[in-house]
Amino acid sequence: MAHAAQDRQLATINITPLVDVLLVMLVIFMVAAPLLSRPLPMQLPHGGPSTATPLELRLQIDSAGGYTLDGRPVSASALGDALQATLQQAPDLRLRIAIADDSDYQAFVGALSVAERVGIRNIGSETR
Q1: Count H helices, E strands: the chain?
Q2: Alpha carbon distance 92, 97 (integer Å)
Q3: Number of domains in the chain
Q4: Which is deepest, 13, 41, 58, 122, by most CB within 10 Å?
Q5: CATH number, domain at 115?
Q6: Quick check: pTM over 0.70?
Q7: Is residue 39 situated within a structural domain?
């Protein structure tokens, strides 16, 4: 009987593949961790209340395609010069383009093109 007990094999779990997988994952995480902690380059606004409000111009486009800049009629050729002069005085200029419902789309695109060409970056539009 003692001889029969020695012939039986014991069932054991082979943990070598498990250890290999865990070591490979450890190496991957050790290599990847420094890459995930890089700083992102961004410019955040400075703290503190700002009392200066940027200058806001209103450009109206009527149904005939004519331009009115802050209540003054302006021709299409003089629009760029008027915007450039105002932008030199106030670099943080805001331009709001008000479009009549039945206005010509080409007049809006022309005004938008002129505003971008002179360097105005804060442009909004509205319909009236």
Answers
A1: 4, 5
A2: 16
A3: 1
A4: 58
A5: 3.30.420.270
A6: no
A7: no
